[in-house]
Design brief:
The complex is a heterodimer. Chain A is mainly beta. Chain A has a two-stranded antiparallel ribbon with strand order 1-2. Chain B is mostly helical. The termini of chain B are far apart. The chains are: A mainly beta, B mainly alpha.
């Protein structure tokens, strides 16, 4: 609560961050809590997963399939 | 210091001389949202970043943007190689030819020279990283405009690579912003 009596900070559990894996589903892994605040900017964390091989990565402009975002316009 | 590798990050091929395309692509060399602006912005801002991680990220991305400036320079050089002064003039590069012949120079397509006022360093890491994310989006948009203007598929291929790198850099700057805002290590986390 801030001095006006409103909740000034929003606490979201980790899986609520769009685009990130739900690590709480993994056994033995506790679920970290993140704090989002108004008037702040955030991006979803990127986690290492599958990667292109080097030749594919050069052709795509990124090593990471989930970051490949080609222009369709 | 830097270690120079005598190759481009991504190979540049062109279908042939194309001074009209060169004229617009020069904006990513010396325009407001071009690669010179990007590299100098990041390499300069890194000194006032509070963590080694943020400094390292700005060094890495600033270095890559220098490599992109070299790619854009190569595109311009190849598109104007062997082009006559009359052809330069007809493509709107008469002013460029008059002052620079076939040399490279940092300007936008209208000939406005690069200025340091295109970049900022406030000393506030949140402000500077937010500017950097903005810069990546502006560069992405500019590459999309250039893709629309390109009539050379070989050049378009390189532009698509460079555009994709801006997308990746935006993600990394955003993660640095997350990190510095400290919501991972906040004392309020429970």
């Amino acid at each position: 609560m801030n001095s006006n009596g409103y909740q000034s900070t929003f606490i979201y559990p980790y899986p609520n961050i769009p685009g990130t894996p739900n690590i709480s589903a993994q056994p033995g892994v506790s679920m970290p809590m993140f704090q989002f605040q108004l008037a702040h900017a955030y991006v979803p964390w990127h986690y290492m997963g599958q990667v292109f091989n080097p030749a594919e990565a050069l052709a795509h402009g990124t090593l990471f399939p989930e970051l490949f975002s080609p222009y369709r316009g | 210091m830097w270690v120079y590798q005598k190759k481009l990050e991504y190979p540049v091929r062109v279908s042939g001389p194309n001074p009209r395309l060169a004229k617009v692509i020069i904006t990513q060399y010396g325009g407001p949202d071009g690669e010179l602006s990007a590299s100098l912005r990041y390499l300069n801002q890194r000194y006032s970043m509070p963590t080694d991680k943020a400094r390292g990220l700005l060094t890495d991305i600033g270095t890559e943007e220098l490599a992109h400036m070299e790619i854009v320079a190569t595109i311009f050089y190849k598109l104007t190689r062997g082009v006559s002064p009359e052809q330069m003039q007809a493509a709107g590069l008469g002013g460029h030819y008059a002052q620079h012949n076939h040399a490279l120079f940092w300007s936008d397509p209208e000939g406005v020279p690069w200025i340091a006022a295109y970049v900022q360093a406030t000393g506030d890491p949140i402000t500077d990283l937010t500017e950097d994310m903005n810069a990546e989006q502006k560069a992405r948009s500019t590459y999309e405009h250039l893709i629309h203007l390109s009539d050379d598929p070989c050049v378009t291929d390189v532009l698509r690579f460079l555009r994709q790198r801006e997308v990746v850099h935006f993600q990394r700057f955003g993660e640095a912003l997350n990190d510095l805002q400290g919501f991972l290590s906040s004392k309020k986390v429970f």
